[in-house]
Amino acid sequence: MAMFPPGKKRRNFFIAQLCVLICTALVMTKAIIGGAINEYNMPFSTWPVELYVSEFFMILIYSSVFTLLLSIPLWYFFIGEQPSESQS
């Protein structure tokens, strides 16, 4: 059994994974940027470059981790167990 069988199931899995990535990136951006603005009481336009870079990498890392974790059930749903072709 191939890990990613060719065809519609694989395409649907990757589309669902892309949707999860977009959703987690939006949620992480709202949480991390909003939290930094509330914590430091600084408007977004006055941030130093180091804060932009650190916030960007936090969003990138957290979004990728949550996307990978939430892709596990998607893999079982879209690809999961394939019926064996050699049933007698």
UniProtKB/TrEMBL annotation:
Top-level taxon: Bacteria
Pfam families named among the record's database cross-references: DUF2534 (PF10749)
Transmembrane segment boundaries: 12-37, 57-79
Swiss-Prot/TrEMBL keywords: Membrane, Transmembrane, Transmembrane helix
Name the record gives this protein: Inner membrane protein
